[in-house]
Amino acid sequence: MLSSRLIYKLKNPLLALKNRPKILYTTFSSSKSSKLVQDDVKARQEKLEEERIRAELTSMEKKQSQNWILEPYVKLMRLNKLAPFWLVYWPGAWGILGAASYLNTHPDFYMLALFGIGGLAMRTAGCIVNDIWDKNYDNKVERTKDRPLASGQIAIPAALGLLGLNLSVALSTLLQLNLTTQVLGACCLFPVAIYPAAKRFTNWPQAVLGATFSWGALMGWSAIVCSNLPQDANILSFLPAVFLYFGCINWTLFYDTIYAFQDIKFDKKLGLKSSAMAIEKRPVPWLMGFSSLCMTNLALFGWMTGQEPIYYMSLGLAAAHFVKQMAFVNLKSPESCAKQFRSNNTLGAIVTFGLLASLLIK
């Protein structure tokens, strides 16, 4: 009996030593599993927290939208996106500054401000007309499906009322100009009205847009020149403005063709047309042509209005900007097209600086 107990005691430590690796492995395995579970729980908690924050932000945005009843009207007038407004404004500013240089007078800052107000009113009016025309198309295009008219946030009668308000503001600014400029302003209503329909019957609706956006060049020139020269001299004095006008049309063809590449696949599905579709197979030569014609006309405009060397330096920078856009734009990427489109305001500001600096140097 004693010997059997002794043998058991001697064997028991050996058994414990023999089983220790298993115990250690089991402890390590359970520890590893516990850590994985903890990590999984932590990841789930972080994900839930992110979802909660996202839900709160979405709720806040909805509340802000609901609280601000004017938001759909701001979007309809595109007051939340002012880059295109400046593209409308630059040709008018160039006409005003170029005319002042042509007449050797001081820059008319009041006229520049007046054209800013009128340009904003006409641009918003054009956006409303465009959205009324395209109401049944915009809701089928990813980029435009949330526009107020397309999404049903605003009814047509309300949009027409807002259109009347903007046209009234534009008219009030127009009546402060001379008669020739008033006639030109009234003529501008025609291209504004037909542009939205142009994409249904021509591959070059951007040319119609260019004629519309560039109209300010003629009006800006007329507002200054026709107020300072006798009537019989006005007709011949419009020649520099004609070169400026065609330069601005080609500039618009350049940047709005890039812009049109954003919607090219949707336009094809809907049976709409654009210059992007017309030049799709060879876009670079066409864009080079538009930019070259723009720069040529701006240079002729500068020569005819007696600009100083600093103006031609600004044209050199503008030409470099054209090259930069063609080098960096990815016509298959909507984001890239939109970025380069907006960058044309830099080009507009460069030319404006050149005209203003040239005028101040004289």
What features would you describe in this structure?
It contains 17 helices and no strands. The protein has helices spanning 2-67, 71-76, 83-103, 109-133, 135-138, 156-174, 179-187, 189-201, 205-213, 215-225, 231-237, 239-260, 264-270, 275-278, 283-304, 309-328, 334-361. Helix 4 runs antiparallel to helix 6 (156-174) and helix 8 packs antiparallel against helix 9 (205-213). The model is unreliable at 1-29 and 63-67 (pLDDT under 50). With 362 residues, the chain is mostly helical.
Question: Short description, anyone?
Answer:
With 362 residues, the protein is mainly alpha-helical. Helix content is 81%, strand content 0%.
Write the topology of this structure.
Layout lengths: L1 H66 L3 H6 L6 H21 L5 H25 L1 H4 L17 H19 L4 H9 L1 H13 L3 H9 L1 H11 L5 H7 L1 H22 L3 H7 L4 H4 L4 H22 L4 H20 L5 H28 L1
